[in-house]
TrEMBL record:
Sorted UniProt keywords: Amino-acid transport, Signal, Transport
Origin: domain of life: Bacteria
Protein name in the entry: ABC-type branched-chain amino acid transport system, periplasmic component
InterPro entries attached to this UniProt entry: BCAA_transport (IPR051010), Leu-bd (IPR028081), Leu_Ile_Val-bd (IPR000709), Peripla_BP_I (IPR028082)
An annotated GO BP: amino acid transport
Pfam families: Peripla_BP_6
The species this protein was found in: Deinococcus peraridilitoris (strain DSM 19664 / LMG 22246 / CIP 109416 / KR-200)
Domain annotation Leucine-binding protein: ranges: 26-372
UniProt entry tagged with the keyword Signal: yes
Leader peptide range in chain numbering: 1-22
Entry's family note: Belongs to the leucine-binding protein family.
Length: 382
């Protein structure tokens, strides 16, 4: 009897081991700034990915073919340096077999696009609004945010009408910042304005912006174009107001009002245009996400967290539909269907799919600071 019991127990043990082996863990890679001036930005992106992974795993994972699949996030710090992004990505491929790598800056994304379609193939999940990312024609890219060029016409029109036609320029000097500057200043001139000297600085390493602000204000601008990570962007506004600037601001989409108002009062941001805070986006999925994120991470979520959260859920659904965890081309091909099939409460920005270039189609609402309050400027579908 005891021998029979031992055999039964042994059989159950073998069965449980077999069941455990049938569950696959897929590593999701992340290479972004986790130290330096842009660390807060990188951590925000990382937390959106982390939140989605935790939700999926808590629900038991997703079924891909005959296997249950859960996810594990492997994060590496690239200090916002494209060469470090490339090194990190190769490490994520070689050591962690990551089929997807999330990258939150244009320089790193464009560098990695140079080798992600070669063996081994992997999907670049791009959190940057740089148009060159989709213009590259890379077939293994999934781009999350709207293109930054969609902001130019309304931002210029609004600030020029409210404040005047002379633009001062103090953006970050990253590749992304330089591209934003080129296209924004071209739009400013197109609408009949004049542009002062470019006094851009590295927002990731600079701590005192007073010299750049002084040089710019000497040209007596009506509006300042600024932007990079939220915290240094707020410090530029603070320096400008302390030196007596009374005009408006065009704020690059990387900086978020709901983080900037933790550094400077909203009254100092008067006349600024930028991305409307997620907390003011009134869709039911957005409000549910905001509440859940606040409860879990004890801080205010932005579009950075929400779009990357959506990206993970879309990839998980695409793997399920494609029936594979390894064929990244097949997974990429299922992304349009995945966005439509994704649970509505995970679709924070009401995405209607993914276009042929791999760009997620999602609603983005712009905001302005007027009368001491952050209000909606306009709504658009990318």
């Amino acid at each position: 009897m005891k021998g029979l019991l031992r055999k039964c127990m042994y059989g159950l043990l073998i069965a449980s081991v077999g069941a455990a082996q049938a569950q696959q863990v897929v590593n999701i890679g992340f290479s972004g700034p986790l130290s330096g001036g842009a660390a807060f930005y990188g951590q925000n992106v990382q937390s959106g990915i982390d939140m989605a992974i935790k939700e999926i795993n808590k629900a038991g994972g997703v079924k891909v073919g005959n296997e249950k699949v859960t996810f594990n996030l492997v994060s590496l710090d690239d200090k916002y340096l494209p060469n470090e992004t490339a090194t990190n990505t190769r490490r994520l491929l070689q050591q962690n077999n990551a089929p997807f790598v999330f990258i939150p800056h244009a320089g790193g994304i464009l560098t990695v696009q140079g080798f992600n379609q070669r063996n081994p193939e992997f999907l670049v999940v791009a959190y940057s609004s740089e148009p060159k990312i989709v213009e590259s024609g890379n077939k293994l890219t999934f781009m999350l945010p709207p293109l930054y060029t969609m902001y130019h016409e309304p931002f210029v029109k609004t600030t020029m009408q409210a404040h005047g036609k002379k633009l001062g320029v103090i953006p970050t000097t990253s590749a992304y910042g330089k591209a934003w500057t080129d296209t924004l200043t071209a739009e400013w001139k197109k609408q009949g304005g004049t542009v002062g000297a470019n006094n851009g600085v590295d927002y990731n390493t600079t701590t005192d912006y007073s010299a750049a602000v002084t040089k710019t204000l000497a040209e007596k601008p009506d509006v300042l174009f600024i932007g990079g990570p939220s915290q240094p962007t707020a410090l530029v506004i603070k320096a400008a107001r302390e030196q007596g600037f009374k005009g408006g601001f065009i704020v690059m989409d990387q900086a978020k009002f709901e983080e900037m108002d933790q550094i400077v009062p909203v009254s100092q941001m008067e006349g600024a245009v930028g991305v409307l805070p997620l907390r003011d986006f009134r869709g039911p999925a957005a409000q549910k996400f905001v509440a859940a994120y606040r409860a879990q991470y004890k801080k205010e979520p932005t579009s950075e967290m929400a779009l990357n959260y959506m990206g993970v859920h879309a990839l998980a659904k695409a793997m399920e539909l494609a029936g594979t965890t390894k064929d990244v081309a097949a997974i990429r091909a299922k992304l349009p269907d995945a966005l439509k099939a994704m649970p509505k409460d995970k679709n924070v920005y009401n995405s209607t799919g993914v276009d042929e270039s791999g760009h997620m189609i999602a609603q983005r609402i712009m905001g302005q600071v007027k009368g001491g309050r952050i209000t909606q400027l306009t709504s658009t579908q990318r």
